[in-house]
Amino acid sequence: MKKKNETKTANKPVHRIRVGAVSCSVFLNKTKEGNEFPSAIISRSYKSGDSFKDSNSYGARHLAELAGLVASLQSWMATNYPDAAN
User: Nearest-CA neighbor of 66 among 7, 16, 23?
Assistant: First the structure.
């Protein structure tokens, strides 16, 4: 059991890809057996007033960027974690 004063270490991205307003962050996760596998979070940045925000909603104008990002992501994962798709 976790003690009150123990904090969980944040899982930082091992890789990031950006295509236009669309980006992804790749994280490494571990199975109970200790095997590592990558997972990705994809988001779109937009400006609201003076600040930038993220969304996971995509319009027609973002689809080409999203397609390019996913192709780059698949290539990176296949190169760096070839067994992850199995």
Answer: 23
